[in-house]
Amino acid sequence: MVLSNYSTEDKVLLAVDCIIFGFDKEKLKILLVQRDFEPEKGKWSLIGGFLTKEENLDEAALRILNHLTGLHDIYMEQVYSFSKVNRDPAERTISVAYYALIDIARHDKELLKHNPMQWFSLKDAPKLIFDHNHMVEKAMARLRRRALSKPIGFELLPKKFTMRQLQKLYEAILDTKLDKRNFINKFNSLDILIKLDEKDMSSSKKGAYLFEFDEEKYNLKVEAGFNFKI
Amino acid sequence: MVLSNYSTEDKVLLAVDCIIFGFDKEKLKILLVQRDFEPEKGKWSLIGGFLTKEENLDEAALRILNHLTGLHDIYMEQVYSFSKVNRDPAERTISVAYYALIDIARHDKELLKHNPMQWFSLKDAPKLIFDHNHMVEKAMARLRRRALSKPIGFELLPKKFTMRQLQKLYEAILDTKLDKRNFINKFNSLDILIKLDEKDMSSSKKGAYLFEFDEEKYNLKVEAGFNFKI
Q: Percent of chain B at pLDDT above 90?
């Protein structure tokens, strides 16, 4: 008694839209593109395209991202499928949102070749086409949940980073100010950082120690999960 | 530079498949249906159907569930979209999986009217059609994550339940034996249970106290989240 009947009219286009979060040591950003066709030509949009016959959704997300930005080897995760009737006024389209986290500095060379992409601070992002703002919110909620239950930063920070940068990242994701001492204690108790014998001298005379993630311990914590209380 | 070009051939059928978890005070179960058409006629399947033109996915999930089982007012949550090429050999179909949690006893009257549905213990569930076993695994992983980060039980247990039933539920979801004293302490520390002045006399001479969830505190914990360490 599964419903077997369907009408060909019920067939839909399946789109994939990519929410690319980046961090530039200060702010959480999102990669957007200016739409160059109607409807909503000229407005800002997530990076997207359509699923084709010979690929699954994961493959489509990677292909679309690579084709439009040059990015490759990016870990993407399916977030949610958006299906409001008339979300795309031109034609019934269901869109599956994917998200990725990248370190902006590490990827900017690839991205600069591709126009007209632009990084926007999440706080100052423009109104997007269709339900794309809703997609960003949903991905942001996922990112926040992830940050509270697993370590985060590996994909978003440069290989070597200061405690201040790590704290800035958490503050950006959780959208809240964190107490410095509490944050440091909390993070040290996770035991996933390696303190380097090297300093970042760019922000003060005294300099700030640089850290790396201990990749093995980091990955173990990702699997085990924790509750990062603020 | 969003990819605007697509071919009508790329249009797909969008199915919705429902993973209905139930608990009968002892075991975690799943509601299945025997498929009565080809391909895979006679095999067991999740409850499913196709998205139609005038509804979004949430509405489709509720409509399909209600039409096939009589169940209504059930809270369903989107889990994931499955898109392997040829997952349905008859036609390219992408399926969005939804899951729901229900107390079997509370709903069996509605369900019995509808055939040929059957509850299977998760442990003894048959091989399902297509990628439905994979869908169940994914929903099960979601349920497990949920049980570790938020209280669970409100939808799955009868209104009044014993500590033993609550523990059985957690053991079924987490697929592990739990120490009774630790479990009770852990749960009491959450402060979401109301101990009733009433006993369940069915399982021992002495009887076992019945509990209810304090709905307000329960919902606050659902929002706040926690880390239920085993």
A: 66
Residue length, chain A?
230
Q: Kindly state the tokens that stand for A211.
A: 């850290």
Least confident of A43-52, A218-227, B38-47, B203-212: A218-227
How many angstroms from the chain centroid is the CA of residue B177? 21
A50 and A113 in a common domain:
yes
Judged by DSSP in three states, A147 sits in helix
Number of domains in chain A: 2
Using an 8 Å CB-CB cutoff, list chain A residues near B38. none
Q: pTM (2 decimals)?
A: 0.91
CB-defined contacts A:B, below 8 A: 131
- Using an 8 Å CB-CB cutoff, list chain B residues near A55: 85
Provide the ipTM: 0.89
Q: Verify that B15 and B97 share a domain, yes or no.
A: yes
CATH of residue B31's domain is 3.90.79.10
pLDDT tens column, A61-96: 999 999 888 888 888 999 999 999 999 998 999 999
Q: What residues of A are in contact with residue B2 (Cβ under 8 Å)?
A: 33, 35-37, 45, 47-49, 68
Alpha helices in B77-214 (DSSP H): 104-112, 132-149, 163-174, 180-190
